Amino acid sequence: MALQRPKGTQDHLPDGSPKLSRDVQASAFRHVQNTAQRVLERAGAQFINTPLFEEAELVKRGVGGSTDIVRKEMFTVYYFGDHGGYVLRPEGTASIVRAYLQNGLKQLPAPLKLWTHGPMFRAENVQKLRLRQFHQVDYEVLGSEGPLVDAEAIWLMWEVVRELGLTGVRVKLGSIGDPEDREAYNAYLRELFTPQLERLSGDSQDRLTRNPMRILDSKSAEDQALIRELDVRPMLDFLGEEARAHFEAVQRYLSVWDVPFDVDPGIVRGLDYYRRTAWELHHEGIGAKSALGGGGRYDGLAEQLGGAAVPGIGWAFGIERVLGALEAEGAAFPETGGPLLFLAAMDEENVGLAARVALQGRRVARVEFAYRALKPGNAFKEADRRRARLAAIIGSDEAARGVLNVKDLASGEQREVPFAELNTFLAEQV
Ligand code: HAM
């Protein structure tokens, strides 16, 4: 058998491929990226790119030592013998904050809105829509701590989803408070779970010492049963006054702007850098356990990375999951069309000429040509197969007179167009 791609990765395929489903359709990926770009750039977000690999230390400090990502899912790249190793980035936020600090982006007008898209890597247990290389659209805002920025970020995420035509999406909104609120909550959880230590999964026993709140996010059914049995109080009960006021302001904005959301008192998120506002988008079509996207505020992250304090908030959604949700909804989708014009020569000696005319036409429209001489019947068949709108055949008569006989494949109408006028003619058709 020929070599296969690694487990947990996907090929993004051209339209018409035999094994095509929406979540691996390259044009569908581009459609999601383009939609996000349109929505985000209208809001003033600028594109940023960061490397696909980073210092392991950045990810450890950024994402956090108690997370599954750092503990179990890092793709480490050993390259230099004495170097501690790079990791393939598991997410974009830590990198963007690093780039902000390293490149003096503080000089730019605040709040600074940035966006990116690209592959992320997590060595997960592979399941449907849980991949080892997946793709995110990521939006980050740096330099403002006001709740209006939080609400705008959530609105933008909602707006991308709306523009894509998805209807079955729910926003689950929560707050994980300020660090002191979290400490109080973790102390409460420690007290509650320590007598039950034996009943917790190995992972959660570990979480109890490192970050008890993460127990609530456990994937083990036994842990979840215990959580229900103990009737654990939610993080929201532990919010301090300021975090509560912030959370309420975010909700007020969203209500006025008609963004539907449910307050989820138990929202945890899988990364350590969050504080205050945190949320997830869910879609029934891809299963309750898989979020379509998520985000939150991370005001302490820049300091955690060794830089000056800068407040930040952002979100990311998984493109594969968005595509899975679109597939589940049978959502309408723009088709990638064929060329405007397909050109063929009838004789070998005119193949080069037909190609030259096509190359000229490409200055204004998508034009394709046949790589060998074709009989008229075959040329029209080929044009049809490529879903061209117009087809033209160059025989020795057309070549001598410097004209094309262009046929509209839908109406059957034909007209003669001199080579010199082709681009004007094509421009009128676009
Ligand atoms: P996250 O919740 O870890 O947040 O990931 C965001 C989204 O990426 C998820 O909701 C999901 O759609 C997708 N995703 C994550 N892991 C996988 C996977 N293994 N396979 C397929 N899709 C996956 C973050 O990454 C944060 N950086 C978001 C953020 C930005 N927070 C603030 N700014």
Automatic annotation (TrEMBL):
The EC number(s) this enzyme carries: 6.1.1.21
Subcellular location: Cytoplasm
Domain Aminoacyl-transfer RNA synthetases class-II family profile: 32-334
UniProt keyword terms in alphabetical order: Aminoacyl-tRNA synthetase, ATP-binding, Cytoplasm, Ligase, Nucleotide-binding, Protein biosynthesis
One MF annotation (Gene Ontology) recorded for this entry: ligase activity
Reactions catalysed according to its record: tRNA(His) + L-histidine + ATP = L-histidyl-tRNA(His) + AMP + diphosphate + H(+)
Positions of region (Disordered): 1-21
SUPFAM superfamilies in alphabetical order: Class II aaRS ABD-related, Class II aaRS and biotin synthetases
Family stated for the protein in its record: Belongs to the class-II aminoacyl-tRNA synthetase family.
Protein name listed in UniProt: Histidine--tRNA ligase
Location, primary (coarse class): cytoplasm
Xref: PANTHER family: HISTIDINE--TRNA LIGASE, MITOCHONDRIAL-RELATED, HISTIDYL-TRNA SYNTHETASE
Keyword Acetylation: no
Cross-referenced InterPro entries: aa-tRNA-synth_II, aa-tRNA-synth_II/BPL/LPL, Anticodon-bd, Anticodon-bd_dom_sf, His-tRNA-ligase, HisRS-like_core, HisRS/HisZ
Alphabetized PROSITE patterns for the sequence: AA_TRNA_LIGASE_II
